[in-house]
Amino acid sequence: MQPIPAAVGAHSFPAIERVHFGRPAAEAIVTEAERAGARRVFIMASRTLNTTTDVVRGIAAALGERHAGTFDGMPQHTTRRGVARAAQAAQEVGADLVVAVGGGSVIDGAKMVTLCLRHGFTDEHLQGLDAFETKLSPEGRIVRPSFEGPQVRMVAVPSTLNGGEFNAGCLVTDERHHHKQTFFHAHMMPRMVVLDPALTVHTPAHLWLGSATRALDHAIEALLSISPTPLSDTVVLEGIRRMAALLPQWQADPGNLELRAACQIASWLCSYGLSSRSVFGGVMMGPSHAIGHVLGGTCGVPHYFCTPVLMPAVLRWSAPSTAERQRLLAEALGRPGVPAGDAFADLVAQLGLPGNLRAVGVQAEQFDNIARISMGEIFTRGNARRITEPADVLEILQLAA
Question: Among the residues of 224-256, which ranges form H helices?
Fold first, then answer.
């Protein structure tokens, strides 16, 4: 593979201390609690894992007297009300370490709980968070508020493959406006991530596969970013190569823990650019993230279906400015010589995931509103082919229709 010419830039390393892979989650969490001197460990878990499996009970039992409480009420898309309820529960038990067990909504919720604990926010709508949102100014510049970050840190134990745990930022839905907001602080990054394949056997197949495309999204948008780095390029291409090869194997043998573990490692590699990205520099995500946030927060599309329906269109729209990188992407997807948009669409079809906006209930009459709201998303500006006006977003939506 020919190296990609390196532009001038910077690679920012995240405030994550370690990743445990292939190790039982309960064992790794107890070790981390002991290392951190934590005495009041607060578990945030998906309701399904907490009520239909013994995963969460096993972690609580392993923690013993260190276990301070469990919360399992975080809604999909991580709502402000859900975060407020969790923050109040964590505050009441005096949490000194938060452990998130589940998918992206739970992990994002835990990041926000650590921030709310730092600032004492527990009111229903978390009004104080309004001053902390990362957003665009009317002139299109990123507004980066400065505030004190979490003192209570978190551990992430993902049950899906999306890779959002390797990120110091997160998304929260403000239900009052049906809009997702971005928040970032270096210490919202998990202190530790635990990749335990045994925990993932409870994850439904459509969620496992859909979340895998989210990991691929993180990798592809890093590759097509306005601010790639040589390190992230190399790692995410390897992540794409592994994930594209592994998913069909997993479909044929979903009970295979070795394949599940290999998929988790692929997700980690795919998310390497995401972990470098920060609002102060690093690898910037792009329009699939920006438009996907609107599809989720405003249109109610499940997060794990946004990439399958958007990414082929984003690739086709971006092709004039990213031809060489898309050539390398197609090779990593196992389809050399095929346009990358077509290669990704073929993978989506092979995985049995929805392949267009109609399939997830988004109609053409919604496009103008989606385009308008998307222009307020910071990641609209992240692609090497720049989005400059709502008409550009409309072109992508029409390609994805």
Answer: 230-252
